[in-house]
């Protein structure tokens, strides 16, 4: 089973090399790695080019945003399974793709997801939050639950059948996509109880009050779009449910 991993990057010279090494350091050999550069004008292109023999690079001279860049990568992907890794994130271990591929093969899943650790931006060994995803059920999705998108791997034919990210959502298109696939279409999701991703805290959706408010607005619109009852209560529950992640750190 071939796995395509996609990273969208824009002016992230401080993290992109660690991200690339995290992917290329996986023990899984049947791997395609695609980096979509949205017109970076720092040292990001130079860093990506160092790995030109092992990384497929798609360059754009005009920044178009995260989700259009990911859509370009998904369209170009030739693997049976597609995963997304943000440019400042890392795989938690060297056997992540191997573990994910095994679940796809053994369970006949349409998508596989696992747990995620939010880590300090400078010291990735310091865990700030631990997102233990748990099993996917429709009633949980209707109450605001969702799997961690960076720890989600989806079969390419699901994208081909049900569509890509809706880029009209600038911050929360991943939430829309997960509801579309998991709730509206009812694809088979399998949970891998293992930390797959180390995600640096301070991402796009919570870097400022303005971003938080925009994300909340987009979440509300998405809940209405998918005909979720009592969207304001669901949105409140979605945010409150994150609080235990700060206290429920896994034991080392």
Account of the protein in words:
The protein is 35% helix and 21% strand. The chain has 252 residues and is an alpha/beta fold. It has a single domain, classed as Alpha-Beta Complex (Spore Coat Polysaccharide Biosynthesis Protein SpsA, Chain A), CATH 3.90.550.10. Strands 1, 2, 3, 4, 5, 6, 7, 8 and 9 form a 9-stranded mixed beta sheet that branches. Helix 1 links the parallel strand 1 and strand 2 (31-37). It is globular and about 50 Å long.
Compact summary:
The chain is an alpha/beta fold and 252 residues long. Helices cover 35% and strands 21% of the residues.
The structure class reads alpha/beta
Report Rg.
17 Å
- Binned strand content: 15-25%
Major sheet attributes: 9 strands, mixed
Query: What percentage of residues falls in helices of 4 or more residues?
Result: 25-40%
Q: What is the H-and-E element order? A: EHEHEHEEHEEHEHHEHH
CATH superfamily descriptor: Spore Coat Polysaccharide Biosynthesis Protein SpsA, Chain A
Number of domains: 1
List keywords for this structure.
21% strand, single chain, nine-stranded mixed β-sheet, Spore Coat Polysaccharide Biosynthesis Protein SpsA, Chain A, 252 residues, 9 helices, alpha/beta
SSE order and pairing:
Blueprint: E1 3-9, H1 16-24, E2 31-37, H2 44-49, E3 56-59, H3 66-76, E4 81-84, E5 90-91, H4 96-107, E6 111-119, E7 127-131, H5 138-142, E8 152-155, H6 156-162, H7 173-184, E9 189-200, H8 209-225, H9 231-240
Parallel strand pairs: 1-2, 1-4, 2-3, 6-9
Antiparallel strand pairs: 4-8, 5-9, 6-7, 6-8
Helix pairs in contact: 8-9
């Amino acid at each position: 089973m071939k796995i395509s991993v996609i990273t969208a990057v824009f002016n992230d010279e401080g993290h992109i090399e660690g991200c690339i090494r995290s992917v290329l350091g996986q023990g899984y050999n049947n791997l395609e790695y695609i980096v979509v550069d949205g017109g970076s004008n720092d040292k990001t292109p130079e860093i990506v080019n160092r790995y030109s023999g092992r990384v497929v690079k798609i360059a754009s001279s005009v920044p178009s945003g995260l989700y259009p860049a990911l859509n370009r990568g998904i369209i170009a992907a030739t693997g049976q399974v597609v995963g997304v890794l943000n440019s400042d994130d890392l795989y938690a271990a060297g056997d992540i793709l191997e573990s994910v591929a095994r679940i796809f093969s053994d369970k006949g899943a349409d998508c596989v997801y696992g747990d995620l650790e939010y880590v300090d931006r400078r010291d990735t060994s310091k865990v700030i939050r631990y997102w233990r995803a748990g099993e996917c059920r429709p009633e949980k999705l209707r109450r605001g639950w969702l799997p961690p998108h960076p720890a989600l791997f989806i079969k390419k034919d699901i994208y081909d059948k049900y569509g890509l990210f809706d880029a009209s959502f600038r911050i929360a298109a991943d939430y829309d996509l997960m509801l579309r696939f998991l709730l509206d279409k009812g694809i088979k999701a399998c949970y891998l109880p293992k930390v797959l991703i180390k995600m640096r805290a301070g991402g796009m959706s919570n870097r400022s009050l303005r971003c938080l408010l925009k994300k909340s607005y987009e979440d509300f619109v998405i809940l209405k779009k998918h005909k979720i009852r009592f969207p304001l209560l669901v949105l409140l529950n979605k945010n409150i449910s994150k609080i235990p992640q700060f206290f429920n750190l896994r034991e080392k």
